[in-house]
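User:
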Amino acid sequence: MFETLITHYESPLYFGTHMAKDAGISEEKFQSIWRKMEDDRTLGKISLEKILEIILKENHCYSERVLKMLVDKRINTKKDTFNHLHEEIIPMLDGLKDKGVYIGLISNCFSEEAKIIKNSILYPYFDAICLSYDEGIMKPDKRIFELCMKKLNVNAEECLYIGDGGSNELDAASKV
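Assistant: Predicted structure:
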């Protein structure tokens, strides 16, 4: 989804560096926990709220107000990405649907991104959705590609995979 159909870079950014600054924590201390937990965040083992709570408590600056501010800013900046769709995305998806093409979505994402994707303007276009946070599998694991094909009821030979190349997804899709 991100950097294939939508981009972060047309919206305000709110990544670990920004959250660390807003929390009053050094970037190094924030990132040491944030990055270490990236796979767990991607695989649905920990939510945005919980990881931020851990970071704030370990750095002795936890408050519900600070937690809420970080969560809200992160969610709002992620939501904003859907306000900057390239002008050809919706017509392309409409064209594929008009031709009867099944469309699957495979995305490595975190808890906040999974919620936003499900509530996005693009979500109804997909016939099958495999979000790493929900499925507990992330690219480049071949199982997430196989799961999407199973949901679409198609064989690998019938599929065309499109992605930005992150997470070694293109090699993984080719192998599947």
